[in-house]
Amino acid sequence: MSLYLSLLVGSKFGLPTLDFRLLTLYMSNKTRSLLKGVAVLIVLMAVLIHLDYISIKYVDPNRFWMVVVGFGLLLIGSK
């Protein structure tokens, strides 16, 4: 089976797209659990910032994007 890792040309609009199923297909369980752990830590940090337990001046406006990145890492780390 060839590892044609990502760019598949021929999507709906003719633009190259990234196929995340191939990224997760060849990932070890240790890497998956590491990505899930990092995702949980990022979201936990965003929640603690929202509840004013942690105050980081430059990260506070980007709480939404922290949760989006955490969710994306969780999706990539899942099977």
Helix content: 40-55%
**N-to-C order of helices and strands:** HHH
Cα radius of gyration in angstroms: 16 Å
Oligomer: single chain
Average pLDDT, to the nearest integer? 77
What portion of residues belong to β-strands? under 5%
List the total number of helices.
3
Distance between the termini: 19 Å
Structure description:
There is one protein chain. The protein is elongated. By secondary structure, it is mainly alpha-helical. It is built from 3 helices and no strands. The protein has one domain. Helix 2 runs antiparallel to helix 3.
Kindly summarize this structure in a few lines.
This protein is mostly helical and 79 residues long. The protein contains three helices and no strands. Helix 2 (29-50) runs antiparallel to helix 3 (63-77).
Secondary structure blueprint with pairings:
Layout: H1 20-25, H2 29-50, H3 63-77
Key structural traits:
disordered N terminus, 54% helix, 79 residues
